[in-house]
Amino acid sequence: MVYTLGIDIGSTTSKCCLIDENREIVGTSLIKSGTGTRGPEKAMEAIEKESGIKKEDIAKIIVTGYGRKNFDGDGDMSELSCHAKGMKFLFPDVRTIIDIGGQDSKVMKLSEDGKLLTFLMNDKCAAGTGRFLDVMAGILGMDIDELSETALLSDTPAKISSTCTVFAESEVISRLSSGTAIPDLVAGICESVATKVSSLVKRVGVMEKVCMSGGVAKNAGVRRAIENNLDIKLYHSELSQLAGALGAALSAMDKYEKENA
Ligand code: ADP
Questions:
Q1: Is 214 in the pocket of ligand 1 (CB under 6 A)?
Q2: Which residues pair with 5 in a beta bridge?
């Protein structure tokens, strides 16, 4: 059996996805530390342990993500291409991808056959990214997954008017002390991220099926707010955070097969 691996080295997390020649996912790993840390090595160790397949038995490794130049693989690929490929595999009908990661957000529009037609990215500002949510979870003393659950308890999100993370931090602290209900505040925080990314989607033009990749796809509060803002059904998968690594593994398999045809 031939195996290939994709490794996505992000700003906050390192993810691996191992597939076999039938394009079956053999194993995945996710370590909560990203580029510049031991995260990528730990993600490799975790996948070897989970799958029982050693690095030397993997035919090809493709590296993607923010830290892709700092890892020794058999080649690297842009996050855009890998997310597009991974999401197309998970959702064959996808036409728009919303990818919110730890330090940027991207919107990609695909052709019917999965080619990247256009994209927009916010990497200048923490607002509208996972970083904003991580900072707010810290202020509220919550885990990031707790933030997601709490948002769903509110139907009346508090309006967070500051567009800058630093000012929004002060605003949240002042709302906390003035007694705004925590679920309303958390829903407002999710709404703030959703509003920013929804405006990127509107700029590229909403084309369904719309699917979400990246770690923030795990946040049900953000997903609900995007659905309401865009008046669409938003799809995601348990593997959304691994979409980049999956796309890299699939590209590695395509490359291997081409070289060995
Ligand atoms: P990167 O590739 O830039 O490291 P990821 O795509 O892995 O980023 O996404 C990281 C973000 O995902 C975090 O900043 C966090 O906000 C969000 N996240 C991660 N796990 C969860 C979870 N269980 N529930 C909600 N949000 C999550």
A1: yes
A2: 18, 61
Q: Answer yes or no: are the C-beta atoms of 222 and 133 closer than 8 Å.
A: yes
Nearest in space to 247 (alpha carbons), one of 108, 39, 123: 108
pLDDT per residue over 125-141, tens digit each? 888 999 999 999 999 99
Which of 49, 58, 51 is CA-nearest to residue 5? 58
- For 223, the token pair is 């997903």
Closest CA to 246 of 87, 77, 40, 100: 87
Cβ pair 164, 132 in contact under 8 A: no
CA of 99 to the centre of ligand 1 (A): 11
| 42 in Cβ contact with 75 (< 8 Å) | no
Is the backbone of residue 40 left (phi > 0), alpha (psi -120 to 50) or beta?
A: alpha
Rounded CA gap, 260 and 33, in Å? 35
pLDDT in tens, 210-235: 999 999 999 999 999 999 999 999 99
Gap from CA of 216 to ligand 1 centroid (Å) = 5
pLDDT at 164 over 90: no
